[in-house]
């Protein structure tokens, strides 16, 4: 994060005061060898990213669902200008919960090639309990 953007990020911290439960923000360094591989050489398309960020949270009370889900969504939107514009696929929930748009975006230009692989090796969609790539056959 650049120096000029830090004050904007700090000003959003008050939104976290309503969080109920535990949370942690993570930043994982990428770059180096990851960036030396072409973005279409493997399923992982975020070859130009310098880091991956995430936010984990948990709470016990059902009554806290709305406030905790809301702040995480607000945090995601606040961070979007600093991202590649899509998610790392392992940070996305199941297709049944979140739909397929985020999954397609995470694979970027590699998605159609992965659909072809899925069509060939798993046309019945047996392996679907992950961030699913649906076969088209």
- Structural class estimated from helices and strands: alpha+beta
Give the biggest sheet. Answer: 2 strands, antiparallel
Order of helices and strands: HEEHHHH
What is the count of DSSP helices, taking H or I runs of 4+ residues? 5
Major sheet strand order? 1-2
Query: Terminal Cα separation, in Å?
Result: 44 Å
Which term fits the overall shape?
flat
Our estimate of the beta-strand percent is 5-15%
> Which ranges are low-confidence, i.e. pLDDT below 50, for 5 or more consecutive residues?
1-8
Helix content: 25-40%
Q: Radius of gyration over alpha carbons?
A: 18 Å
Query: Could you report the average pLDDT, rounded to the nearest whole number?
Result: 83
Number of domains: 2
Overall description:
The protein is an alpha+beta fold. The protein folds into two domains: 85 residues, no CATH class; 51 residues, no CATH class. Helices cover 31% and strands 12% of the residues. Strands 1-2 form a two-stranded antiparallel ribbon. The N terminus is likely disordered.
């Amino acid at each position: 994060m650049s120096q000029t953007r830090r004050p904007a990020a700090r000003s959003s911290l008050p939104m976290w005061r309503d969080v109920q439960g535990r949370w942690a923000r993570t930043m994982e360094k990428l770059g180096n060898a990851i960036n030396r591989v072409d973005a279409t050489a493997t399923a992982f398309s975020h070859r130009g990213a310098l880091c991956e960020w995430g936010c984990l949270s948990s709470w016990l009370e059902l009554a806290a669902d709305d406030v905790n889900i809301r702040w995480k969504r607000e945090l995601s939107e606040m961070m979007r200008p600093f991202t590649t514009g899509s998610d790392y696929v392992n940070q996305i929930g199941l297709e049944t919960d979140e739909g397929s748009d985020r999954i397609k975006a995470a694979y970027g230009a590699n998605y159609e090639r992965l659909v072809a692989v899925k069509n060939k090796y798993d046309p019945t969609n047996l392996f679907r309990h992950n961030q699913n790539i649906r076969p088209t056959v």
